[in-house]
């Protein structure tokens, strides 16, 4: 049974020399997260975060820029090690943080499918079996044999999402960019995410798009200055963010 258990999670990192408080303020929401010890400054990116997810949960992460959403995703994926607390995941984890991460820009889309598959631990037979399904879902058509560097952001996003979800990852972590692209593909992506969750999977999605989160998630967690509050429902977006 897949699960994510996070208890009293904390992440503090050192501000490198030459990194101004003004620059830091773009990454954390408030100077209260920045502590000075002598000439060294420390940022508390996550502070006492606790939550549990089980099969079928789709968690939406909300909060202002620098609140800790992306940092939390990286801790869940294992690319960042917490300073304190524990993170226990059960199940195969895949992540979509950056649409170009792991892609070779000079290689074709087809070749990138092969390379990403090998990185993910798929066998050549599995890659071959899923190749046409990935191409069809991405809607790239003949562009699949053109270099990745020629793709628009939306095309790259479609390919990355199609690869990451074709093997039914048990836990899928995604950042803001999945909301990019045309409306039809967003609908397809939300439908596939719902299908993944129904197959005993867990999804954690960070986004500023409240409409996307409401359509995709059944639980919500709000981060403020690195601290987290579980929400029963997503609050209305501020007026300035409404269209």
From TrEMBL:
Q: Name one Pfam family in it.
A: ABC_tran
Keyword ATP-binding assigned: yes
User: Which UniProt keywords are listed?
Assistant: ATP-binding, Nucleotide-binding, Transport
Q: Which SMART domains match?
A: AAA
Q: Which residues form a coiled coil?
A: none
In this chain the ABC transporter domain maps to: 21-243
Q: Which InterPro entries match?
A: AAA+_ATPase, ABC_transporter-like_ATP-bd, ABC_transporter-like_CS, ABC_transpr_TagH-like, Bact_Polysacc_Export_ATP-bd
Protein family per UniProt? Belongs to the ABC transporter superfamily.
| Name under which the protein is recorded | ABC transporter ATP-binding protein
């Amino acid at each position: 049974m897949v699960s994510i258990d996070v208890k009293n999670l904390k992440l503090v990192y050192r501000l490198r020399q030459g990194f101004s408080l003004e620059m830091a303020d773009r990454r954390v929401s408030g100077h209260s997260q920045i502590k000075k010890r002598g000439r060294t400054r420390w940022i508390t990116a996550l502070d006492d975060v606790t939550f549990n997810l089980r099969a079928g949960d789709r968690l939406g992460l909300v909060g202002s820029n620098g609140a800790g959403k992306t940092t939390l995703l990286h801790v869940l994926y294992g690319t960042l090690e917490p300073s304190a607390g524990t993170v226990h995941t059960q199940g195969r984890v895949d992540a979509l943080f950056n649409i170009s991460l792991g892609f070779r820009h000079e290689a074709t889309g087809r070749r990138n499918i092969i390379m990403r598959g090998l990185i993910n631990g798929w066998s050549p037979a599995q890659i071959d079996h899923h190749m046409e399904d990935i191409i069809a879902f991405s809607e790239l058509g003949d562009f699949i044999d053109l270099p990745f560097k020629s793709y628009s952001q939306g095309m790259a996003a479609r390919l990355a999402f199609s690869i990451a979800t074709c093997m039914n990852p048990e836990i899928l972590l995604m950042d803001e960019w999945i909301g990019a692209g045309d409306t039809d593909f967003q609908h397809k992506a939300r439908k596939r995410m719902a299908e993944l969750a129904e197959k005993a999977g867990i999804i954690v999605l960070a986004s500023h798009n409240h409409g996307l989160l409401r359509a995709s998630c059944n639980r919500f967690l709000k981060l403020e200055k690195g601290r987290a509050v579980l929400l029963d429902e997503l609050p209305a977006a501020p007026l300035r963010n409404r269209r």
